[in-house]
Amino acid sequence: MTRSLVLTIATVISCLSSATIQAQQPTENQLALLKIFRSEFVALGPGTKHFSKTFQMGGSKTAASLEQPQHSVAIAYNFSVARYEIPQNLWEVVMGSNPSKWKGPRNSVEMLSFAEAQDFCRKTTLLMRQAKLIKGNQIVRLPSEAEWEYFARAGTETIYSFGDSVDKLNDYGWHTGNAAGNDPPVGAKKPNPWGLYDIHGYLWEWCLDTGHNDYNQAPSDGSAWIAAKSKTRIARGGSWKDKPLKLTSSFRFIVPADHKDDALGLRCVLTAEK
């Protein structure tokens, strides 16, 4: 092989590498929305200040069997959680299209499978690293089910994060009793004690865990509980289509991983890559 040919090949490879790097650079629109997204994360420090390290996960003895047995979970790492469910304008600039049935730039994105939610997290991580909005060892991902209940409860032990009475639910969430005729943006209701919106209702939120019929042998460290061959995942929080019983902090919903619905979306966490 001649020296000139080697140099030509090297030049081509260099150009291709530069093109790849350039392709990963966020566009102006992406960067603007990603900056907003980054600013909306709430940092949680289990075991510090008002963030308890340990909490009781699951429902009481009178709750559905899916929520039992109630058990202690200890989270020994810091992570951040998005203040809002992922809005459609952010999804669209990252993914290139908007699958939602009910359109609105700051409405929660819906009609997406678990795999699509994972793909959004992966692409968002790469874009935010490229823009230096997050560190190179940080990732945007879906929460584990334990993480979800930890930040949904926000230090409370009641049925909802605002108490045991359903009377206040209209102030905090969209459900079948108040959603008709509404097409709201994220954050239109009151937040939970840690400043997170739409925890109760609006959309179900994908979690990393596969479906299990109870909590027997569930992890106690906040990690996701994943069965390798399962074709299901857990969704949490209830939706605008559901009655108040399904909007509690402990209610669990086992969903086929390829399921898409206009009542199913996502919320992301930001954490160190393991």
Question: How would you describe this protein?
Answer:
The longest helix has 22 residues. The chain is globular, with a radius of gyration of 20 Å. It is built from 6 helices and 10 strands, in the order H-H-E-E-E-E-H-H-E-H-H-E-E-E-E-E. It has a 4-stranded antiparallel β-sheet with strand order 1-4-10-5. A 4-stranded mixed β-sheet has the order 8-7-6-9, with helices on one face. A two-stranded antiparallel sheet has the order 2-3. It is an alpha+beta fold and 274 residues long. The protein has a single domain, classed as paralog of FGE (formylglycine-generating enzyme), CATH 3.90.1580.10. Helices cover 26% and strands 14% of the residues.
- How large is the radius of gyration? 20 Å
Structural class category: alpha+beta
CATH domain fold name: paralog of FGE (formylglycine-generating enzyme)
CATH H-level superfamily title: paralog of FGE (formylglycine-generating enzyme)
List the helices and strands in order: HHEEEEHHEHHEEEEE
Q: In percent, how much strand structure appears in the residues? A: 5-15%
Total individual domains: 1
Keywords:
4-stranded mixed β-sheet, 26% helix, alpha+beta, 4-stranded antiparallel β-sheet, 274 residues
